[in-house]
Amino acid sequence: MGALDEPLTKLVGDRTAKVLADSLKLRTVGDLLHHYPRRYVERGQLTSLDELEVDEHVTVLARIEKVTLIPFRGRKGDRLEVIVTDGRSRLTLVFFNQGWRQKELRPGAQGLFAGKVGLFNRTRQLASPDYQLLDEDADSGTAEAFAGRLIPVYPASAQLPSWRLEKAVAVALDKHLADVGEPLPAELRAAHDLIPLAEALELVHRPRTQADRERAQSRLRWDEAFVLQVALAQRRAADSALPATARHRRPGGLLDAFDARLPFTLTEGQQSVCAEIFADLASEHPMHRLLQGEVGSGKTLVALRAMLAVVDAGGQAVLLAPTEVLAQQHHRSIVEMMGDLAEGGMLGGSDLGTRVALLTGSMGVPARRQAMLDMACGDAGITIGTHALIEDKVQFQDLGLVVVDEQHRFGVEQRDALRAKGDTPPHLLVMTATPIPRTVAMTVFGDLETSVLDQLPAGRSPIATHVVPSLEKPAFLARTWERLREEVGKGHQAYVVCPRIGDEPEQPPKKRRRAAEEDLEDVGEDAGAGSDERRPPLSVVDTAGMLAKGPLAGLRLEILHGRLAPEAKDDVMTRFAAGAVDILVATTVIEVGVNVPNSTVMVIMDADRFGVSQLHQLRGRVGRGSAAGLCLLVSEMPGGSAARGRLDAVAGTLDGFELSRIDLEQRREGDVLGQAQSGVKSSLKVLSVLDDEEVIATAREEAARLVAADPALAAHPELRTALESLLDEDRADYLEKG
């Protein structure tokens, strides 16, 4: 075991090591050395307080403005209230029964204050924060420690504030800096003017100037980009060696018959993307392609043409959908588009046709058995289903293509389990309308072949989006319901979306898992959980009842959510599509794939509780016909908050790719080699996939050359060690599965 792999107990003691492991996942000397400051402040430079987020652990440098000791009424004890400022905004510090601190927390003093941002009476505060004063009267050792250099502010926790982390890092640097290896080849460092890694670690933790910090971070960006690109280059090399059955397009077959019946012409984008996919399918190595397309750009049609081409070549194709509602919608629309071509071997079916099977978890036993039989014997050239397709007993005669709709809804293990059902690895096509952060990251890193559909078919109408601040302007919410009535009066229909079902019963664990799989109702990350003033999310059941008795009384309202019986879901959607329902109050089960051209308005309640990508997906359900679409984002969050900023961004653009960048900026990349899909567990500490695309692209070229010359990295032992550190067992498995 190398010195950097030593447990932190030897360096900082058992107690501090336990806190580091439990709160920050830092377990070794190397972990600590690579725990970089999130930002730096200069002595005398105050932290901007108006950017602090509720529930965030922060360390701020601020000046004490006012100190007040407030006795409790009618009982013993007191509250010490300290107001700190950056000159523009203020933050309240609260200490309970600690009046003695009044002697040292004096107005005018500067200090570092660390704690978790909370809300009380709509005012941000830190309760019982840890602090370190830096005022002119502080002891000489403190003044000397902070004078004349940048102060690092580390990602910290309630148990371990930033300055204590700094002291632990200092011990690690003093004792182990000489043990730091050099993973980057010397010629690469020389070509890109990069300092040694040991020097970079010294300067990133102890910079005296901004230039020191920039030199260190430049080197560390390259470490992250290059080591990761080596991992991806090795994976690409392994993928290129895998065998797959080539699926050549057959003239005069099912695909040509389908194309001849289309009542419209494919867009140039659809034709170009189909050509790319057909070329991949004809390869003897498995396709691994991401199809990115705006909401309504015709991704499903492109996927269907790919599936028909595979059926023509003698194989089978499967479309994996995240919810039963979407699976049923896909099945219904594909069967309608294909007509008698979807009735192969059946009375009245076309001689060129095939069967289109549907398989979901709650289908009746006879229907489920027949679908599985059609798949196993090859009669079903196309199968559409949910997670039920992944079960062990589901078999195919010759699975040639797996299409995954809304790929971020599925774990890699699920996709891998489905791909394993082919005798040879089937081709894989994953689709998304708005890439989630991890997808954007992997795309920028060049690990996926990517096709883009950025044209909308003719006849699609624009969607206007507006934020409705329901607390600030209650009249706007009243006008929202009037607007729905007006659209219904014109013969149109509308959606009202809520983040919660309502009246959730207590369920056994197995049923809870299944409800989660079939419903997949994700609440946005920035929902303000933990805030003492946030009410529970609005529910479908309660909202539908309120609307039916109040502003929308007399209209035909129905509800739709993931816990309805499959027959009930299908019945509601069928009647809504037929125009027999005016208002559909639903959860996010209608987020993707639902196509009702007569729907013109969507109202999203508690819109701040959804992510950017979800909001964009949801509003894509309106404006699908000739009439213009309208999306109203209802929120109680105040103007200037991060949540409102996110809603304003959605309202400001219809460009899903721009929104994906906004999403990435706010949530970060996620663990690009692991299963985390939010920035909390990002494996990227210095590198940004948005800001450092040039570094990433250059690192990819350098990594490809190195892996081509030395696939096993035999001549680069330090790089191999860095790669092993990056790829722990879980990430290695994840990378292998694709």
Distance between the termini: 30 Å
Largest sheet: 7 strands, parallel
Question: How big is the Rg?
Answer: 29 Å
Described by the principal axes of the CA atoms, the overall outline is globular
Pfam families: DEAD (PF00270), Helicase_C (PF00271), RecG_dom3_C (PF19833), RecG_wedge (PF17191)
GO molecular function, one term: DNA helicase activity
InterPro entries: DEAD/DEAH_box_helicase_dom, Helicase_ATP-bd, Helicase_C-like, NA-bd_OB-fold, P-loop_NTPase, RecG/Mfd, RecG_dom3_C, RecG_wedge
Keywords: ATP-binding, DNA damage, DNA repair, DNA-binding, Helicase, Hydrolase, Nucleotide-binding
Describe the structure.
- The chain is an alpha/beta fold and 738 residues long.
- Helix content is 39%, strand content 18%.
- The strands form four sheets. It has a seven-stranded parallel sheet with strand order 11-12-10-13-14-9-15, sandwiched between helices. A six-stranded parallel sheet has the order 16-21-20-17-19-18, sandwiched between helices. Strands 2-3-4-6-5 form a five-stranded mixed β-barrel.
- The radius of gyration is 29 Å and the shape is globular.
- The model is unreliable at 506-532 and 675-681 (pLDDT under 50).
Protein traits:
7-stranded parallel β-sheet; alpha/beta; 21 strands; 6-stranded parallel β-sheet; 25 helices; 18% strand; globular; 738 residues
